[in-house]
Design a protein that fits this description.
Chains A, B: It is found in: Peroxisome. Chains A, B: GO terms for molecular function: 3alpha,7alpha,12alpha-trihydroxy-5beta-cholestanoyl-CoA 24-hydroxylase activity; acyl-CoA oxidase activity; FAD binding; fatty acid binding. Chains A, B: Its main location: other. Two copies of one chain form a homodimer. By secondary structure, the first copy, chain A, is of the alpha+beta class. Chain A is 53% helix and 10% strand. The two termini of chain A are 49 Å apart. The radius of gyration of chain A is 28 Å and the shape is globular. In chain A, strands 1, 2, 3, 5, 6 and 9 form a six-stranded mixed β-sheet that branches. Chain A has a three-stranded antiparallel β-sheet with strand order 4-8-7, with no helix packed on it. Chain A has two domains: 158 residues, Butyryl-CoA Dehydrogenase, subunit A, domain 2 (Beta Barrel), CATH 2.40.110; 298 residues, Up-down Bundle (Butyryl-CoA Dehydrogenase, subunit A, domain 3). Chains A and B meet through strand 7, helix 8, helix 9, helix 10 and helix 11 of A and strand 7, helix 8, helix 9, helix 10 and helix 11 of B.
Chain lengths: 616, 616
C-alpha cells in the first residue's frame, strides 16, 4: 500500500479539478441549471447584474434610511437621505432597550418638548431604559433614529421617532450627553457592532422628530395624520427584506454545502462487496437535507409573494390609504417568525448532517447557524410575532363568521367545511389540490377551535386577558398553520405558472410536493386529529413522501448549483464547487493559528509530565 | 423623572442583594430545595463531596485510561494505568479518521505485524485515513490509543487498538514518523484541542496492542477470546458517562439561567393597569421552559438507570460473560442519541426564550449550546446510533414473535395489543399507567409496522440491504419511541419509590406527568394514528398538559435552584443567584475588549465620512 506523502498533499495540486463523485452528479441534471438560476433571480439580466455587484455593508444604515423614507416628511427626506446616501453620516436604528423588546409601548426613553427652545430633550430615566442591541451603534454610527415616549406640556403622546446625532462628524467622539459603547461578544463569530446608548439631557431641534404622520407644532399642538400603527411600518419593511437578505441566503448556502459534501463523503457499505456508499444515497440523509432544499425554494417564492404585497401596500400608504396595514403586518410578522424558525432549524440540520466536519468552522456552517439564529430574535421575537398574526386571524375569523368582509389572505376562514380528504392512493397526494385543501382544513380547524375555547372561557367568567393567555400555545399553532397553508398554496400556484418551462416546472413540482408532504408527515397529528385524514391516508402520505426523496435526490446537486454561490461567498472547505473536501480541510487546518507552538506546554504540560508541578 | 447616573450604576452596589422578583419565587417553594439536591446527588454526603471538589480536566485522558482498563491485559493495565494516573503521560484516543467516522470497519489506518522485530508498523496510507478530531491530540497528548486494521502475514484481522507514543516526554517534540497538529477552529468558543495525526512507518512493540480479548503471539498466531464486539465496549462506557458529565449538566444550567431570567424580565401587560408581567407568567414562555426542566429531571433518572445497567454488564464482562452486550449497546446508543438531541434542542429553546440577551455571550447560553451540539455528533453520530438500536429492536421483535427469550428492556415487544386508551377525562391522563401504556403502544406499533414493511419489501424481491435502507426513516422513529417509552416508564417508577419523601414526590410526579404529556402533545400523530388515542382524548391531553404548566410554574425557581450550580460555574449575567440581570449585563459589557477605541475609525470610517475614500 502506498504511503501518504505529506508534501504532495500540501501543494494543493488537486484543488480546482472537480472531484469525480461530484462531477457525475452534474451530468444527469433533469433541467438547465442556468435557467433555474435566472428564474430565481427574476430574469437572466438580473442574474448578470447580481454577479457583477458585490455585497453591500451597513445594513443598519439602510434601515435608518428606510425609516426616514417611510416616516419622514418630504422635507426631512430631502435633507437626510442625500447625506446618508453619500455616507456623510452613518445611521443606525435605536428602538430596543435593555429591559424592553417587542413591546413598543413599554419603552422608557423620554423626549420632552421644550416650547421655549423649540427642542426635544431626550433622556434615559433608568438602567432598563438604556438603548441596547442597535446595530452599528456601539462603535460606528454618527446618527440614530431614537424611539422615545413623547411628552408635551406633561402629557404623554406615546412612542415617536427622533433623529439624534451621537458622534462628532469630525473626530467621531461622543456628543455631549451621550454615553455609548459595545454590548460585548455575541454568539456570532464575527465581532458585529451592537451598541448601547444612554441619553442625558440631549437636545434635538423640533424638525428632528420624523413627521410624515404626526407633527408637533411650535406651540406644542400635536397633530396626527393617519394610523398610529404607521410606526410599525418600518419594521414590516425590515422584516420582509431580512427574509431574503439574511435568512433564505443562509439556508441556501447551508443546503449547498451539505449537499455537495454528501455526494463526496462515503460511509459504510450499502451493498455488500461494493465500495462505501455516498451518504446522500442513504434515505436518512435524504430525509435530512432534501426537505430543507424544498423549503428554501418554497420560501423563496413566499418572499416574492410578500414583496409584491408590500409594494402594493406601500403605494397605498403613499396615498394615505392605510387599509392594507393590518393584513401586511399579520403576514409579515407570521412569515418572519415561520421562515426564520424553519430556516434556522434547516441550517442546524445541514450542519449536523455533515457530522464532525460540519462542526468545524472550516465548513462555513457554524457561522451561518449563529447568524441565522439571531434572526429568530431580532426585529421581533417570534412567539410575540406569531401571537400578533393570531390576533389578526381570530379577529378576521369572527368577522368572516358574521358575514363581514375580510382581507384576501383570510377569506378562506369563512368556509368551514366538515369534509374528509378524498385521496384514494399515494399518487393522489401528489395533487396540489389534495394537499393544499388539507393544509387549509387544518388552518381553519385550529383557528376556529381556539376561537371557540376563547369564547367559552370568557363566557365562563374568565377575564379576557386571562382567557387570551390560556389560549396562547394554541394560538401560536393556528398562526403557524395559517402561514404554512399560504406558503404551500403559493408554491403550488407558482409551479402552475411555469408551464412554458417544462424541465424546470417538473422539478419544481417535485419540490412543491415534497415541501407539502414533509409538513404533513412531520406534523401528522394536526391532520389526523379530527379524522380529515385517515390512518390509511397518512400511510399514503408517508409512502409518497419517501418516494419523492429518491426522485429529488438525483437532481440534488444541480438544484443547489442553481443557487449560484461563488466559492468565496460559501467560504467552506466542504462545499466548494470542486468537491475537494479532504484536501481543503487539511490545507486550511494547517494554516490555523492554533498550530503555532503554544506557551501552554512550557507553562502547564511540562511541569505536569516532569512531575514538577508541586514545586511551582 | 430621575435621570440615570451612570457612575452610580457602575459601582455594582446592588450585586449580591437578591432581586425581589426572584426572592419572592423562593418563598413559596412546595418542597425543600436542599433535600431535592441531595436526591439528585444520591445522598447528602455526595452533595457535600461534590461541593468540595473542583472540575477535572483532560476528559480524553480518562477515555484513554478507560480503554486500557477495559481492553488491556492485566499486564498492560499494571504498566500504563499508574503512569496515566500520575500524569507521567497524557493520553488520547485516536479512532475517527478524516474520511471515516462511526463505521469502524471502514477505518484505513494499518498496523502490519513484523515477526522479525516483534513490532507493529503503523501507517496512514492516504489522506482520508488521517486521524482527525481526537481530543487533546493536536497540541497536548504524548500517547494515544490508535485504532488500525491489523495485518499479519498479509491477512487482515480487522480493527484493533494500539498504544502509540506521539510526543517526547522530554521536550514534547513529535516522535519520528509522526505528523500531528490541530484541526482548526470549531463551533465552540473555547479553543479545544482537537488533533490530526499522520503515521509513517511508526513502530510499536508487540506488547502495545491492547490484548485482553485478542492477542498476537510472537510467531504471528492470532488468538481471540470473547466477542469481537468488545472493542465497542469502550464507546458504550464513554457514551453513558458523557450523558451525565456533559449533556445533562448543560441542559440543567440552561434551565437555571432561563428560568431565573424569566422571573426578572418583565414584558407587556398581562392585566390592564398593572405593571408589566414577568415573562414566566405567559403560557407560551412556560411552554418553552418547563418541558425542558421536566426533561432534565427525566433524563437524570434515565442516566441512573443506564449507569446501573452498565455496572452490571461490566461485572459480567469481567467474568467473560458477554450476554448483556447487545442490550447495553442498543440502550446506550439509543439514549445517547435521544438525550443529546433532546437536550441540545432544549438548550436552544432556553437560549431563544431569553430573547436577544440569550444570544449575548454574557448570558452563558451560547457556549452551552455550541458545546452540547457537538455531543450529537461525537461518540457516534445520532442517526447511525438510532439505527443500531433499531436493528436490535427488529431482531428482538422477530425473536419475541417467535416465542424466543429476549432481554428485559424489550420483553414488552412480545405483547402486541390492539386495545384503546381507557382515559375518560383529563385527570385520567395524570395516571402513569395510562400514559406509560400509550407510549408502550406506540413503540410496539412503530417497531412491528416497520418490521412488516421490511418483510414485505424482501418478499417482493427487493434486496435485503435496499429494503433496510428504504425503511430507515421509520426505523429511526421506532428507536426513538422505544427510548422515550423506557424514559417515561423509568421516571414513573422512580417517582413511585419516593413515597417517604412526600413533598419531593409530589413535585416529581408533576414533572413526570409533564414530561410524558409534553411528548404526547408534541408528537400527537404517533398516538392518534391507529386510533389508540381518540381526538377527544388528545384534547384531554392538551388540557391536562396546559394545566400542569401553571402548576409547575410556581415551583420553577426552586426546581432550578436544586441543581445547585454556583454563579461561577453558570458564568451568566442572566442566571446568577441574585437576579441582578441588567446591572450585571451593563457592567460586563463595559469590560468587553470591543469597547477599546478601534483602529477601524481611522482606517475606514473617517475617510468615508470625510469623503476621502476615493483618494486612498
Amino acid at each position: 500500500m502506498a504511503l501518504l506523502e505529506t508534501s504532495k498533499h500540501s501543494q494543493g495540486s488537486v484543488l480546482g479539478s472537480v472531484n469525480p463523485d461530484l462531477a457525475s452528479e452534474r451530468q444527469t441534471a433533469s433541467f438547465c441549471v442556468e435557467k433555474l438560476t435566472a428564474l430565481l433571480d427574476g430574469g437572466a439580466e438580473q442574474t448578470r447584474i447580481r454577479r457583477a455587484v458585490g455585497d453591500v455593508a451597513f445594513l443598519l444604515h439602510r434601515v435608518f434610511m428606510r425609516s426616514i423614507s417611510v416616516l419622514g416628511s418630504d422635507k426631512q427626506v430631502a435633507k437626510w437621505i442625500p447625506l446618508a446616501t453619500q455616507h456623510r453620516l452613518i445611521g443606525s436604528y435605536a428602538q430596543t432597550e435593555l429591559g424592553h423588546g417587542t413591546y413598543l409601548q413599554g419603552l422608557e426613553t423620554t423626549a420632552v418638548f421644550d416650547t421655549a427652545t423649540q427642542e426635544f430633550i431626550l433622556n434615559t430615566p433608568k438602567i432598563s431604559a438604556m438603548k441596547w442591541w442597535p446595530g452599528d451603534m456601539g462603535r460606528s454610527a454618527t446618527h440614530t433614529v431614537v424611539f422615545a415616549q413623547l411628552y408635551i406640556h406633561g402629557k404623554c403622546y406615546g412612542i415617536h421617532p427622533f433623529i439624534v446625532q451621537i458622534r462628532s462628524l469630525q473626530d467621531h467622539s461622543l456628543c455631549p450627553g451621550i454615553t455609548a459603547g459595545d454590548i460585548g461578544p455575541k454568539m456570532n463569530f464575527e465581532h458585529t457592532d451592537n451598541g448601547y446608548l444612554l441619553l442625558k439631557n440631549v437636545r434635538v431641534p423640533r424638525e428632528n422628530m420624523l413627521s410624515k404622520f404626526c407633527e408637533v407644532r411650535p406651540d406644542g399642538t400635536y397633530v396626527r395624520q393617519g394610523s398610529q400603527k404607521i410606526n410599525y411600518f418600518t419594521m414590516t419593511a425590515v422584516r420582509i427584506s431580512l427574509i431574503s437578505d439574511e435568512v433564505l441566503t443562509a439556508l441556501m448556502k447551508a443546503c449547498t454545502i451539505a449537499t455537495r459534501y454528501s455526494v463526496v463523503r462515503r460511509q459504510s457499505k450499502l451493498k455488500p462487496g461494493e465500495q462505501e456508499a455516498k451518504i446522500l444515497d442513504y434515505q436518512t440523509q435524504q430525509e435530512k437535507l432534501l426537505p430543507q432544499l424544498a423549503a428554501a425554494y418554497a420560501f423563496h417564492f413566499t418572499n416574492d409573494y410578500l414583496q409584491e404585497l408590500f409594494n402594493r401596500g406601500y403605494r397605498e400608504i403613499q396615498k394615505k390609504n392605510f387599509d392594507m396595514l393590518p393584513e401586511l403586518h399579520a403576514l409579515s410578522s407570521g412569515f418572519k417568525a415561520v421562515i426564520t424558525q424553519h430556516c434556522t432549524a434547516g441550517v442546524e440540520i445541514c450542519l449536523r448532517a455533515c457530522g464532525g466536519h460540519g462542526y468545524s468552522l472550516l465548513s462555513g456552517l457554524p457561522s451561518l447557524y449563529t447568524k441565522i439564529l439571531a434572526s429568530c430574535i431580532y426585529e421581533g421575537e417570534n412567539t410575540i410575532l406569531l401571537l400578533q398574526t393570531a390576533r389578526f386571524l381570530i379577529k378576521c375569523f369572527m368577522a368572516a363568521s358574521a358575514g363581514q368582509p375580510v382581507p384576501p389572505s383570510v377569506t378562506y376562514l369563512a368556509a368551514v367545511k366538515h369534509g374528509k380528504c378524498p385521496a384514494k392512493n399515494k399518487v393522489d397526494f401528489l395533487s396540489p389540490d389534495i394537499y393544499t385543501e388539507a393544509y387549509q382544513h387544518v388552518a381553519i380547524r385550529l383557528t376556529s377551535s381556539t376561537a371557540a375555547k376563547l369564547q367559552d372561557l370568557i363566557q365562563s367568567g374568565v377575564k379576557k386577558y386571562d382567557a387570551w393567555n390560556q389560549c396562547t400555545v394554541q394560538l401560536v399553532q393556528a398562526a403557524k398553520a395559517h402561514c404554512h397553508y399560504i406558503a404551500v398554496k403559493n408554491f403550488a400556484e407558482t409551479v402552475e405558472k411555469l408551464e412554458t418551462k417544462a424541465g424546470i416546472q417538473k422539478i419544481m413540482k417535485h419540490l412543491c410536493d415534497l415541501f407539502a408532504l414533509h409538513g404533513i408527515f412531520s406534523n401528522s397529528g394536526a391532520f389526523l386529529h379530527d379524522g380529515y385524514t385517515s390512518a390509511a391516508q397518512m400511510d399514503m402520505v408517508t409512502a409518497s413522501y419517501l418516494d419523492l426523496l429518491a426522485v429529488i435526490r438525483k437532481d440534488a446537486v444541480p438544484l443547489v448549483d442553481a443557487f449560484d454561490f461563488t466559492d468565496q461567498s460559501l467560504n467552506s472547505a466542504l462545499g466548494s464547487y470542486d468537491g475537494q473536501v479532504y484536501q481543503r480541510l487539511y490545507e486550511w487546518a494547517q494554516k490555523s493559528p492554533t498550530n503555532q507552538m503554544s506557551p501552554a506546554y512550557e507553562r502547564y504540560l511540562k511541569p505536569l509530565l516532569h512531575n514538577t508541578l508541586s514545586k511551582l
